[in-house]
C-alpha cells in the first residue's frame, strides 16, 4: 500500500488522519513507504535505535523522536543497512542522520531533519513503544503511517485495518 499517495489518502480519509507538518528531508532510496508504527523517544543516544533496527521489521516503520536535535546523528549507514537486512519499510527521525550519500543508495524509506557527521552516545537512554508527537501528529505504536514525497500521514490501527482490507 506504499504506492498510495498521501494526498489521495487524505482526500479519502480526511480527519481520520493526522498530517505531520514537520518539513523532513527524504534521504533514503525509497521515496514512498508505509507500515505499522514502532516508536523510540531519545536524545542524542542511538543505542535503542540500533537495537531496534537490528531486529525483524517487516511491515514496520520506525519513528524516532530525537526532540528535533541535529547536534548528533541518530542513524548512519551501518544501522540503516541493518534495517534493510531486517525488512524495515522506513525510518522517520525527528533529528539528524549521517552517511547520507550511502543511505540514499539503500532500499529504505528515510526521512530526517538534517545531517550531522557527529556520532551520538550509546548509553541506551530513551524509551521505546511510547506515543510521540511532533509536527501536529501523534505517532502511536501499532498505528499505521504512510510517507511519500508530499509528507507523512498517520491513522489509528482500527482505521488502517478498515482501509487496508
UniProtKB/TrEMBL annotation:
Pfam families (alphabetical): RraA-like (PF03737)
A GO biological process held by the record: regulation of RNA metabolic process
Chain positions recorded as substrate binding sites: 76-79, 98
Residues the record lists as binding Mg(2+): 99
Gene3D superfamilies named among the record's database cross-references: Ribonuclease E inhibitor RraA/RraA-like
Catalytic activity: 4-hydroxy-4-methyl-2-oxoglutarate = 2 pyruvate; oxaloacetate + H(+) = pyruvate + CO2
Record bears the keyword Magnesium: yes
Keywords assigned by UniProt, alphabetized: Lyase, Magnesium, Metal-binding
One GO MF term attached to the UniProt entry: oxaloacetate decarboxylase activity
Cofactor: a divalent metal cation; Mg(2+)
UniProt-listed Enzyme Commission number(s): 4.1.1.112, 4.1.3.17
Summary of subunit composition and partner proteins: Homotrimer.
Task of the protein: Catalyzes the aldol cleavage of 4-hydroxy-4-methyl-2-oxoglutarate (HMG) into 2 molecules of pyruvate. Also contains a secondary oxaloacetate (OAA) decarboxylase activity due to the common pyruvate enolate transition state formed following C-C bond cleavage in the retro-aldol and decarboxylation reactions.
Family (UniProt): Belongs to the class II aldolase/RraA-like family.
Protein name: 4-hydroxy-4-methyl-2-oxoglutarate aldolase
Lineage: Bacteria, Bacillati, Actinomycetota, Actinomycetes, Micrococcales
Amino acid at each position: 500500500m506504499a504506492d498510495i499517495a498521501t494526498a489521495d489518502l487524505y482526500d479519502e480519509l480526511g480527519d481520520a488522519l493526522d498530517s505531520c507538518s514537520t518539513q523532513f528531508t527524504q534521504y533514503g532510496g525509497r521515496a514512498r513507504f508505509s507500515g505499522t508504527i514502532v516508536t523510540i523517544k531519545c536524545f542524542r543516544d542511538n543505542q535503542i535505535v540500533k537495537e531496534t533496527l537490528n531486529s525483524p521489521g517487516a511491515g514496520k516503520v520506525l519513528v524516532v523522536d530525537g526532540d528535533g536535535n541535529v547536534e548528533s546523528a541518530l542513524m548512519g549507514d551501518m544501522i540503516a543497512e541493518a534495517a534493510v537486512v531486517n525488512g524495515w519499510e522506513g525510518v522517520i527521525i525527528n533529528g539528524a542522520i549521517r552517511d547520507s550519500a550511502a543511505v540514499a543508495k539503500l532500499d529504505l524509506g528515510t526521512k530526517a531533519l538534517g545531517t550531522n557527521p557527529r556520532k551520538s552516545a550509546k548509553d541506551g537512554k530513551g524509551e521505546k513503544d511510547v506515543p510521540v508527537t511532533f509536527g501536529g501528529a501523534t505517532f502511536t505504536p501499532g498505528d499505521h503511517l504512510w510517507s511519500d514525497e508530499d509528507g507523512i500521514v498517520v491513522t489509528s490501527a482500527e482505521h488502517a485495518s478498515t482501509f487496508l482490507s
